[in-house]
Every structure is written in structure tokens, then in C-alpha cells.
Write the C-alpha cells for this entry.
Amino acid sequence: MTIANAVWRWASLVLFCACWSGCSQLGESSREEEKDPNYLTGKNRVAALDHQGAIDSFEKAVADNPHSAAAHLELGLIHQQYLATNWARAIYHFEKYLELRPKANNADLIRQRISQCKLELAKEVPFAAVNQQMQRELEKMDRLNRENAALRQQLEQLKTPLTQRSGSGPAGVTALNPTSSPGSRPVVSAQAASNPAAQFAQAVERPASPDPSRDIARASVTTKTHVVKSGEWPYSIARSYGIKVADLLSANPGVDPRRLRPGQALVIPSS
């Protein structure tokens, strides 16, 4: 029993020393970061309500020491509490703080702040602007459809008298679509060649065949896709491609911007 008690006491002592050493190193690192001149300047500027100046000082502290968790935390708090329009920057600095200090006592509180920032960022997505843009596109398509219908009606009106006069002699059109080998041009009389209506009907009836390879090449150049990664939002994706959030959402009408999933493919419109 005495030996067992001695072993238990020895193990407890080793565990205590290990924990104390880790906490001591963490506390020492925190104290060293908070002694940085740029960090101290930033804290003084926060107290003086000079928030932009505080941001400059804390960013210099991070530039000198990228592992300065204390500076990242202060930057996250400023962007969340005082510069409320920059939720994305607050999220970035809070996540860097947790990355550098995953076992910090305030880790749960920082995670809650990250969730709040993400909710506020989602509210800024301009759904009204997207809906207005989609409405304009629908109206444009409707107008084009009406114009195409009017052109087809005019074409039918032009073809009717030409068909009635076809084959009536030298004064008429010999043929608009004579039987010939594929790709040959229709043969018309000299009078038909000088008749604008006949030329219009012939040009519309035999449109130039499209080049599929050219369309495919054009589509491959102008169309991009992006695979969503964990933690990405429409704002960050649009910003990385230099486009507007409204343009990104308009190119992906079936996508819910508040429920992006990792691995989901998004169409990136040309800027």
C-alpha cells in the first residue's frame, strides 16, 4: 500500500508540473506580446477613441510578430464593436486568435462573437438589388421575344407574294430555294437580285450555320466556376474574384447565400 501511495503521489507531482509549465509558458507569451510598443500604443489609442489609429498600431504589432494573439484579438474587437461594417475582418482576426490560442479561457466567448459577425455579414447581402436585376433581365427577355415575333411576322408577309410569283416567267423570281447540293447558294433572277424584299427573305431563310467550336471556345473563356470551401461566404468569394456580390448571386439564382456548403460549385460571372 505504501508503494502504491508513493507512485500515485509521484504521478500527481509530474502532472502538476506539466500543467504548471504549460500555463506558465502561455502566460509568459501573453505578457511578452502585451509589452510590444506597437501593442501598447494601440491600447492607448483605443482608450482615446482613436480606433483607426489603434488599428494601424495593432497591425504593425502583427507585422512584427505574426503570432501575436493579443494583437489579433484587439483588432477583432475593434472591427466588431466600432467599425461595424467590416464584419469579415473581425471574423478573420477572431479566428487567428483561436488558431494561436485554442485553449484560451475566453475561447467559447470568441466563438460566439464569430457567429454573431457571420449573422450580421449575411444580413448585408443585397437581396433587393438582386431581385431588381433579375426583374430587369426578365423584362429584357420579354422585349426580345416580342421583337422576334414581329420580325417573323414581317418575314411571312414578305414570303407570301414572292412565293405566289415564283416561276411565273422572266418577271418573277425563278426560285428561292432550288434543289441543289448542300451549301450552294439559291439562284435568283436579275430582277430578284435587285429586289430588297427578295434579298431579305433569302438572307433570313438561309442563315449562316453557326460554328459550334467557336461557341464552345467562347463559353470556356467567359465562364468560371468556384468550389466552395469551408468558412467561405458570398462576400469573400465575390471579393476574391473582384466582382460584386449581387453579380455572383444573379449568376447563381438557385443558391441560398446563407447556406453555402463545402464542395458546392458556383458560377463566377465575367467581371
Remarks:
- The first strand starts at residue 224 and ends at 227.
- Residues 215 and 221 are 10 Å apart (CA to CA).
- The two ends are 78 Å apart (CA to CA).
